[in-house]
Amino acid sequence: MSDGLDGSAAPLFEIESPDRLLLNTPVVIALGNAFRLFERTGQDLNNFDVRIAERQKENGEDEDGVDTIGIAFSAKLPPGQKGLGNASRLGRSIMYIASRITGEMLRERGSR
After folding, report:
1. Which of 1, 56, 83, 107 counts the highest number of beta carbons within 10 A?
2. Domain of life here (predicted)?
3. Is the pTM of this model over 0.85?
4. Contact 57, 67 (CB under 8 A)
């Protein structure tokens, strides 16, 4: 159970109104770090959707199984194409895993 002091009790984001989204500080840090890492792949960001999700208690894969943030750059499929896996003609999907407390990158998953 969290005492709220470690940042894990705060929501990743809040929808303040239909046109306003509030991101907590670790999410902003993680998103910036993930974008910089993604840029290094040389892929065109326009060919990707970006999803941010909370990942809860990852079976010790991270620091003692702590809650993390997943930032996925998901390759879009060309119109009419169905796909399996994490790649399309438009690019290869990558997920970055970050600390929910600090926004520090812990690892990445997916294809490079």
Report:
1. 83
2. Bacteria
3. no
4. yes
The string of pLDDT tens digits covering residues 37-88 is: 999 999 999 999 999 998 876 655 555 557 889 999 998 877 777 665 555 6
Domain ranges of the chain: 19-76+88-110
| Cα dihedral across residues 84, 82, 42, 72: positive or negative | negative
Q: Which position has the token pair 């290094």?
A: 40
Q: Kindly tell me if the per-residue pLDDT of 92 is higher than 50.
A: yes
Q: Are 75 and 92 in contact (CB under 8 A)?
A: yes
Assign 3-class secondary structure to the chain. CCCCCCCCCCCCEEEEECCEEEECHHHHHHHHHHHHHHHCCCCCHHHEEEEEEEECCCCCCCHHHCCEEEEEEEECCCCCCCCCCCEECCEECEEEEEECCCCCEEEEEECC
Q: What is the percent of the chain where pLDDT is above 90?
A: 43
